[in-house]
Design brief:
about 30% strand, disordered C terminus, Leucine-rich repeat, LRR (right-handed beta-alpha superhelix), 16 strands, mainly beta, four-stranded parallel beta sheet, globular
């Protein structure tokens, strides 16, 4: 058998009033990622970015990525947040990541200055280099127990964390070296459910 081809085909999909662009990862498996942007490193170490998606609409401060999307009558599962997909979205305060995502790629949410709250669901296996770089307003960050790799500087510059947690099979990924180190083998509930049980809502405000 030959190798299954990978199709770099984009399409737009509107979910709860918000339109994002998606790129097909594998047509046979019906998987997509949120469209990637790009970054370039200059001669003297400076980095410039282009985002793949832009948050717009009435609730431009809130991003809810759907678990599945459609292109016409064909349904795809969203399994990845692309490189630089939402980099530099200055108005974004809250994101909701579905339990279908396996990878959060490089610089996916970097420089989202007002991003306050993120829960990494128990489907995610990898958080890539600088994924949340310099989200300096971030106050809540909970990493699910399925994550097996957090690359260097994934949370670099997230210096104002109030509540954070990560599984005990990983090194502390947070810039301030804080955070609750929980036993990953005993996490039966989702990270979001654990927060709700402690009186914290997934929007980052007290319940």
């Amino acid at each position: 058998m030959g190798t299954i081809p990978i199709f770099a085909r984009d399409f737009k999909y509107t979910y709860e009033g918000q339109t994002l662009t998606y790129t097909v990862i594998n047509e046979a498996q019906k998987t997509v990622e949120t469209k990637a942007g790009s970054y370039t490193e200059g001669k003297y170490g400076q980095v410039s970015f282009t985002h793949g998606n832009e948050i717009s609409g009435r609730e431009y401060w809130y991003l809810k990525i759907p678990p599945t999307v459609k292109d016409g009558d064909i349904e795809y599962t969203v399994t990845k947040i692309g490189v630089c997909s939402f980099v530099g979205q200055k108005t974004l305060a809250t994101i909701e990541i579905p339990n279908t995502i396996h990878i959060i790629d490089e610089y996916a949410f970097a420089l989202c200055d007002h991003l306050r709250f993120v829960v990494i669901p128990n489907s995610v296996r990898k958080i890539s280099y600088c994924a949340f770089y310099n989200c300096d307003d971030m106050q809540y960050a909970i990493v699910g127990n399925s994550v097996v790799l957090i690359e260097e500087d994934a949370f670099k510059g997230c210096v104002n964390l109030v509540k954070s947690a990560y599984p005990d099979n990983l090194q502390n990924p947070f810039s301030n070296n804080g955070g609750l180190r929980y036993r990953s083998s005993r996490l039966s509930r989702s990270p979001a459910a654990r927060l709700r049980a402690r009186g914290i809502s997934p929007c980052g405000d007290p319940c």
